[in-house]
Amino acid sequence: MKLAMIGFGQAGGKIVDRFLDYDDRTGSGIVRAAIAVNSAKADLIGLDNIPQENRVLIGQARVKGHGVGADNELGAEVAEEDIDEVQNAIDSIPTHEVDAFLIVAGMGGGTGSGGAPVLAKHLKRIYTIPVYGLGVLPGTDEGGIYTLNAARSFQTFVREVDNLLVFDNDSWRQTGESMEGGYDQINEEIVRRFGILFGAGEVGEGQEVAESVVDSSEIINTLSGGGVSTVGFASEDVEVNSGGGLLSRFTGDTGGDDSLDAANTTNRITSLVRKAALGRLTLPCEIEGTERALLVLSGPSEYLNRKGIERGRKWLEEETGSMEVRGGDFPRGEPEVAAAILLSGVTNVPRIKRLQQVAIEAQDNIDDIQQDSSENLEELVEDDEDELEPLF
Ligand SMILES: Nc1nc2c(ncn2[C@@H]2O[C@H](COP(=O)(O)OP(=O)(O)OP(=O)(O)O)[C@@H](O)[C@H]2O)c(=O)[nH]1
Fold this sequence. Notes:
Keywords: Cell shape, Cytoplasm, GTP-binding, Nucleotide-binding. There is one protein chain. The protein is an alpha/beta fold. Helix content is 48%, strand content 18%. It contains 13 helices and 10 strands. The radius of gyration is 24 Å and the shape is globular. The relative contact order is 0.11. Mean pLDDT is 88; it is low at 244-257 and 384-392. The structure holds guanosine-5'-triphosphate. Residues 9-11, 14, 39-40, 43, 67-70, 106, 108-113, 136, 138-139, 142, 146, 169, 183, 186-187 line the site of guanosine-5'-triphosphate.
């Protein structure tokens, strides 16, 4: 699947930058275009791979290149004011070669959290291809303002995009390690998981064609219907057998005891699928009740078989209760077999429930403050009237 990626804010820019690096390393070819948008000049300068001409500084008239300082309302305002600057950069993308937009942003800060939903709304008005979001939730130890920003922005972002893929920093923090120290690893985890999912079906020159291909339309269909998505992943190191290839998969010629090898391959796949779905998800949740799912099995072709994927798919249907579970393989020359599972339209997500609660409480507080201040105002007016009375 070919994506036009737009990294909004610092986290968004760094993750898109890392996707370009992943593309380079693996030859995946998923990033057709990469743009970074920020209100802080220093964050744009710090990027390594996104071309200079695709780095867009917004809000210069308001914040002079210094960022919006976690004020996501200001982030939304500067995005709206300078949306033409962002559009100019997007105009240079051959959008007819792109299957979807992916807007990546940290939900806890100001620029990305405020601006990403504004951009999503703008793109959906102009283009017919899907607009997806990849939203990063802040760690709960980052402080109230980050949680509040995320609570507010999350609701708007889900509404504006065709599907919101979520990564929760909080559940990926290494114990005893600061977030800053852990971002490198976290970002690698993000690009690996989403890279395999979006990379399935992108066959480069000289690469093998999958036995049961996952093409862009299957990814789009899994994401259609909106809502929130999470991704599970599990992998196992294997040896790459240079003698095995596409042919060996059809003939069953894997150089050893054929029936045993086929059974091993199937068992390895089914256990990887279970580990991926029941292990750490990008956004932890109950998988039961998931609306749609997509299973991608990647690895050297001699380690992939249709039977294993079929079994994995059936198991996922039972566990999620969904009748819409798609699956396929993604042959790659890497010395590992990996299962990546996209769970789309998840409903039972404790973290989101907590965020919604925060948003409701914040709204109640705002209402109380407004109520108080209007009562104060009335009292003031009354006081003023009392004071003014003797004059007339
Ligand atoms: N996964 C990941 N999360 C990050 C990274 N950098 C920052 N974050 C998260 O993103 C949130 C802050 O968003 P940023 O992107 O830094 O902020 P911004 O959008 O640039 O907004 P301002 O700095 O307020 O103008 C924090 O809550 C962090 O949890 C990163 O490299 N990777």
